[in-house]
Amino acid sequence: MKIAILSRAPQSYSTGRLRTAAVQRGHTVKVLNTLRFAIDLSGPEPDLHFRGRPLSSYDAVLPRIGNSITYFGTAVVRQFEQMDVFTPNTANGISNARDKLRATQILSRHDIAMPATAFVRNRADVRPAIERVGGAPVVIKLLEGTQGIGVILAPQVKVAEAIIETLHSTNQNVLIQSFISESRGRDIRALVVGDRVVAAMRRTADGDEFRSNVHRGGRVEAVTLDPAYERAAVRSAQIMGLRVAGVDMLEGNDGPLVMEVNSSPGLQGIETATKLDVAGAIIDYIAHEVAFPDIDVRQRLAVSTGYGVAELVVHAGADIVGTTLGDSGILERDITVLTLNRGTTVIPNPRRGQVLQAEDRLLCFGKMDEMRSMTPSRRRRASVRKLPKLPKPTPAA
Ligand SMILES: Nc1ncnc2c1ncn2[C@@H]1O[C@H](COP(=O)(O)OP(=O)(O)O)[C@@H](O)[C@H]1O
Ligand SMILES: [Mg+2]
């Protein structure tokens, strides 16, 4: 395959290793500076220029988008997606992961355990939020920090309030998060590639530091992960839409607590700690998947008028609870059930014999009208009405 690595740091350990791993496997590889692309929207087809010339064709792209260029970098990745070039990490996945709040919001609806987190803006809401996550000591985080910068441990509520107010006054958004003291300055970094963890390490903070980032002097050692940690890491990456990710987890009393999902994980620490060829695993995965670029299913399926994708919930007490999918009448209504979600398990392509349970969620493709008629509680779309008579403006005194 012919692969482009998007990176502004051709000399860095990670980029170098990825390039070498690709060459060793007989692939053609180019490292392209992300900021030298031009997105061309003038022609009939999505296009890209690089250093002022039309870009030659690639089978795959591996984005390594630094924090400082997220907006432009994800725009370039999105353009590759529009051109049907395979990327393990989509533009959406990268932007979702980059914003710690957005990532937490997305993960929280999927039963991924995380440290209790709050997000507020008004001064009056700061103290109740601190109390809700468990009081002091409390962790305060800038939304887009990396390498431990922008992560603060406030020992007292008063100090926390002062820090948060100061940051708010300079228009910085911050997360308020419960301090997981039992992790004692340690955390787990799991490198997810595709649907498995290919390498994992434990990082231990230096001295009395609580942040275990390698850039903050953290030491690294290889670990074999408990299945619970492996599952949490793989699911988190998958939910974020990332096929290559570094998932950071704290070791809580009740198991893994996911802190963040990194879309451009560094390879030096993890390869040194584990002596594993992580770069090779990434390249092998891309070569294996290259024929199937991720597609935006909703976007593709919504192009026929009147048809679309929707999720139907089997409400407790509904007639179809306990019947099979085949007997439920759903399939006769020109509706195709793509997946059945039950709690945290997903049953792809459920068969006619599948028995439906209360609270099952069916991801369906079909006629929007038919699907709407099956969700009783929502209001139907009304035609546009005439503006009601407004009171006459009172003449100015
Ligand atoms: N809620 C927390 N409780 C205890 N330690 C934490 C908590 N949040 C972060 N840390 C420590 O701080 C480090 C950096 O936090 P993280 O959210 O990963 O930010 P960054 O993006 O800067 O790496 C983590 O690796 C961990 O060691
Ligand atoms: Mg981190």
Structure overview:
By secondary structure, the chain is α+β, with helices and mostly antiparallel strands. It has 4 domains: 2-97, Rossmann fold (3-Layer(aba) Sandwich), CATH 3.40.50; 116-181, Dna Ligase, domain 1 (2-Layer Sandwich), CATH 3.30.1490.20; 182-289, D-amino Acid Aminotransferase, Chain A, domain 1 (2-Layer Sandwich), CATH 3.30.470.20; 297-373, 2-Layer Sandwich (Alpha-Beta Plaits). It is 27% helix and 26% strand. It is built from 11 helices and 19 strands. It has helices spanning 13-24, 70-82, 91-98, 100-108, 123-132, 157-169, 227-240, 268-274, 278-289, 297-301, 368-373; strands spanning 2-6, 28-32, 37-40, 47-50, 53-54, 60-63, 117-118, 138-142, 151-154, 174-178, 186-193, 196-204, 219-222, 244-252, 255-262, 307-313, 335-342, 345-348, 361-367. It has a 5-stranded antiparallel beta sheet with strand order 13-12-11-14-15, sandwiched between helices. It has a 4-stranded antiparallel beta sheet with strand order 7-10-8-9, with helices on both faces. The radius of gyration is 25 Å and the shape is globular. The model has no long low-confidence stretch (mean pLDDT 92).
Count of helical stretches = 11
Strand order of the largest sheet: 13-12-11-14-15
| Overall morphology | globular
Which homologous superfamily in CATH is the superfamily of the largest domain? ATP-grasp fold, B domain
User: For the CA atoms, what is the radius of gyration?
Assistant: 25 Å
Protein name: RimK family alpha-L-glutamate ligase
Keywords: ATP-binding, Ligase, Magnesium, Manganese, Metal-binding, Nucleotide-binding, Protein biosynthesis
GO molecular function, one term: ribosomal S6-glutamic acid ligase activity
Domain ATP-grasp: 104-287
